[in-house]
Amino acid sequence: MFESLTDRLNQVFTQLRRRGKLSEADVDAALREVRLALLDADVHYSVVKKFTAGVRERAVGAEVSRALNPAQQVIKIVHEELISTLGEPERLNLTGEKPRVIMLVGLQGSGKTTAAAKLARLLRSQGERVLLAAADPYRPAAVQQLVTLGGTVGVEVFTDSRLNPPELVQKAYEQGIKGGYSILIADTAGRSQMDDTLMDELKAITRKVKPADILLVVDSMVGQEALHIAEGFRDTVTLTGLILTKMDGDARGGAAISIRSVTGVPIKFLGVGEGIDALEVYDPRRLASRILG
Ligand code: GDP
């Protein structure tokens, strides 16, 4: 496990007595720890640099408030900067013509199929009529997995092994209209890497059904690679949000900071376990606290 940033900063400042303002030397000593902690949390190097520069600007010369010691003061500034970098929560785009299409994209193993079912469960609990589309015909096991998960959460799953993914999503959409569904969640094919075939297919789906939301599912354990993945998908489709999965593991969420900071795509949900209810609506304050440890 990582040593928490809070502990690290407390160690840096342990020799210092409370004083009126944070000096440049104090701040630089603290920022070395902040930098290491963020790199440990797999935040991309370029983002770490920009972030610490922002903190430095705010911290040097800042008054240490009476209630806090210097370490706490720096932690407060880092926390606030983190929240600002992570961005405010943005909701799903649920109003408008029905069914609203939510398309999930991502690499194989990212937790996309699980996230589709978790999201279906969440939206159903909010009174939506949800239909799932299993648009991953290359992997029969994925279709079966979604059918099973759909059964668990009480949501119907549209499948048809004869159709290619764009046709399948189109048919599911028609079914959604006929059946009076308010939301269609499309679980698209995942591959082990981003290739032209996958990207062409995703584009073809968006041409057919015009999704209200396109959510990228990223495994938080992939570390620095997460930024590369997000940039690759963003260049193909208009991402409206991010679902960061496996946040219950050792990963501290550095991927969230990198992706949000570089691509501007807002984080919408966190996957926090294998269970079907292990989906959190993103909250920047809670995530910043987790990253700081
Ligand atoms: P897909 O290939 O992207 O559709 O990925 P899956 O949905 O099949 O998930 C891959 C594996 O990750 C499965 O074993 C899931 O149970 C697991 N998984 C998905 N989301 C989470 C999560 O938030 N936390 C944990 N611990 N495991 C997850």
TrEMBL record:
<keyword id="KW-0547">Nucleotide-binding</keyword>
<comment type="similarity">
    <text>Belongs to the GTP-binding SRP family. SRP54 subfamily.</text>
</comment>
<dbReference type="GO" id="GO:0003924">
    <property type="term" value="F:GTPase activity"/>
</dbReference>
<protein>
    <recommendedName>
        <fullName>Signal recognition particle protein</fullName>
        <ecNumber>3.6.5.4</ecNumber>
    </recommendedName>
</protein>
<keyword id="KW-0733">Signal recognition particle</keyword>
<feature type="binding site">
    <location>
        <begin position="187"/>
        <end position="191"/>
    </location>
    <ligand>
        <name>GTP</name>
    </ligand>
</feature>
<comment type="function">
    <text>Involved in targeting and insertion of nascent membrane proteins into the cytoplasmic membrane. Binds to the hydrophobic signal sequence of the ribosome-nascent chain (RNC) as it emerges from the ribosomes. The SRP-RNC complex is then targeted to the cytoplasmic membrane where it interacts with the SRP receptor FtsY.</text>
</comment>
<dbReference type="GO" id="GO:0048500">
    <property type="term" value="C:signal recognition particle"/>
</dbReference>
<keyword id="KW-0687">Ribonucleoprotein</keyword>
<keyword id="KW-0342">GTP-binding</keyword>
<keyword id="KW-0963">Cytoplasm</keyword>
<feature type="binding site">
    <location>
        <begin position="245"/>
        <end position="248"/>
    </location>
    <ligand>
        <name>GTP</name>
    </ligand>
</feature>
<keyword id="KW-0694">RNA-binding</keyword>
<feature type="domain" description="SRP54-type proteins GTP-binding">
    <location>
        <begin position="266"/>
        <end position="279"/>
    </location>
</feature>
<dbReference type="GO" id="GO:0008312">
    <property type="term" value="F:7S RNA binding"/>
</dbReference>
<feature type="binding site">
    <location>
        <begin position="106"/>
        <end position="113"/>
    </location>
    <ligand>
        <name>GTP</name>
    </ligand>
</feature>
<keyword id="KW-0378">Hydrolase</keyword>
<comment type="subunit">
    <text>Part of the signal recognition particle protein translocation system, which is composed of SRP and FtsY.</text>
</comment>
<dbReference type="GO" id="GO:0005525">
    <property type="term" value="F:GTP binding"/>
</dbReference>
<dbReference type="GO" id="GO:0006614">
    <property type="term" value="P:SRP-dependent cotranslational protein targeting to membrane"/>
</dbReference>
